[in-house]
Amino acid sequence: MARRPLPRILSTGSAQIARSRELARTAADSATDVLHPLITITRGLRRLASAGRRKWADTPKDKRGPLLFLVASVVLVVALVPYGPLLAVIILMAAAAWQGRDRTPPAPEGPDESQTQRLKSLYEALVPYFATAEDPAPLYAHGGEWEKAFPEYEFDETSRITQLVIRYPAYFTDGEADARARIEQLLHAKSGRGREYRFAWDEEGNQLSVTVLPPLPTDIAAQRFVTAPGETVLGFTDPTEVQRTLPLTHGEEQRDVPPVVWRTGVRSTEPHLLVVGQPGSGTSTLLRSIALQALPYGDVVIVEGGGTGEYACLTGRDGVLAVECGLTGALASLEWAATETERRLIAMNRARQAGHPPPEDTRRPLWILLDRPSAFTHLATADGHRDPQSLLQVPLRHGRAAGVTVVVADQFDSADALSDAVRQHTRARVVLGPATPAQVEAVLGAPPHTTPVADVPPGRGYARLGAGPVHRLQVPSTPDPYDDETSEADRQAVLALLPPRTTPVDAQTVPTETEAVVAEAP
């Protein structure tokens, strides 16, 4: 799908600023290289002058006269000797260059003792996996040289590995997922738990790159993102994964953060979204964030199966057609959504056959957000009603052409209750909260390229759009503003994004005949 072009100020402004910074940095480095001798001599002259002032201050007052006479005599002799001034200048410059040299102790070459011990231990742990008895020149052997196996490595201030390049034999079965998983699990345990690692396998070069990833920012509050219509920010990821950044406001600070943008509409290849997570992982937060981004451009229908009132702040707002928490209301809303999808398809088809553009009432996007629909499945089965998920077949199958987007969020323990239509037509997937690699692969269709962490903050997970790569994801903080545990800053951020309340029909006033005449008068 062709990417929608950004506004000029967004597509060129950041690039120009980056190029300007790079040019300025390059010019500064070049000037430093060219002027390095002059900088060194100037620094030395300043140090010699400081030393002279200290010597003069330490000299007793009764000895300053003879000292001045001695200095004057030396200057006079130098002035009278042939080539004396030139030799004096040369000696002064040499002394200044010596005094102005960089006295910073050079960084130690190679790892220190503790770092070397870590690399040796890691090497010995990899020997059973990368060594065979038939290898005539083994790269891995007990007591072997780890320098050949680890050509590149970096450590942090605590002597823990932050980046490592591992060479392995060509006969290692790096094409098998189980073999890779064993190596990754070993490296995760030996390099230090509690951190998130990215593993990049180079099968052609027989190399494995291990990188420690920094934690994603968790302090990004809900706000109006700079996106085009049809673009929804699911969260934020690593800067190396996407080629776009969004300007965000964090208090008084401005910063650019790489987003995970989900594109919907007629030309979208993944028009519907499925979110799966553990309780308290942030699935409802993501649905609230999507609803707040969708309301300026479309209408929203919310069906909540949890019955916790997570979306009470959206009730009665402009663009919010319904917020249903009961089975009867959910069935009625989803039945209307299916009928509305069919109506839009028929109206658009008639307009195309007549050679006219689509009608205005079919252009405004319609969003159907379902939070835990599996709860209604159990209720419907117990009461003998129709499963509400069966009403999603038409919006899921024909929603892209009709401008209808479906977002379903549920929990891992209820994922088996999701209908086949939901599983087949939700090509955009998000997994939130603590999950094993097998669970992530079962939902996203591909395993994550990073190791799981023990302490997972709310809204942290993985996202995959269609057949694209798996991204790390951090959902922007969009809590329920009516929750007492919500901080005041987050509450005000969400309330600022809510549309105004819709005026009820019985509260609308009908102008009298006199008022109408006055209003029409010039």
UniProtKB/TrEMBL annotation:
Domain named FtsK: residues: 257-441
Gene Ontology molecular function: any one: DNA binding
Residues in coiled coil: none
InterPro entries in the record: AAA+_ATPase, FtsK_dom, P-loop_NTPase
Highest taxon, organism lineage: Bacteria
Transmembrane parts of this sequence: 67-98
Keywords tagged on the record: ATP-binding, Membrane, Nucleotide-binding, Transmembrane, Transmembrane helix
Gene3D superfamilies according to UniProt: P-loop containing nucleotide triphosphate hydrolases (3.40.50.300)
Region feature (Disordered): 499-522
Binding site for ATP: G277, Q278, P279, G280, S281, G282, T283, S284
Protein name: FtsK domain-containing protein
